[in-house]
Amino acid sequence: MACVFCEIVDGSRDALVVDETDRTLAFLDMRPVFHGHTLVVPRDHHETILDLPADVIGPVFAAVQRVTGAVIEAMGADGAFVAVNNRISQSVPHLHVHVVPRRTKDGLKGFFWLRHPYASDDEAAEVAARIRSALS
Known about the structure:
This protein is α+β, with helices and mostly antiparallel strands and 136 residues long. It has a single domain (4-135), classed as HIT family, subunit A, CATH 3.30.428.10. The protein is built from three helices and five strands; from the N terminus they run H-E-E-E-H-E-E-H. Strands 1-2-3-5-4 form a five-stranded antiparallel β-sheet. The radius of gyration is 14 Å and the shape is globular.
């Protein structure tokens, strides 16, 4: 079975990419908890954090750190929630780190999160452009 995130990495599936390195790719989650919700993935397929080779941990989390700062800045957030699911609640079996912008009293409680989809592809593209700009 094809991996959706591997298809995004190889360019055969579209995504709104906000950051890329030789080891990582970051793109908007198409079912965001809040606008700006970004996923950071290793380019090579590794299912969970336990499968991630030691030499890839640094590049992945350097990208997570960089993207987290950019998401906070671009979205005018007070902070961010950064999370990795491993098998349970992992909708795509390819390691991905969620970077979710947070605001004081944003209503997010526990782990039951209502999704806030983008109104249009144009709105999602504008958010991706803001995060890309904050990364430069």
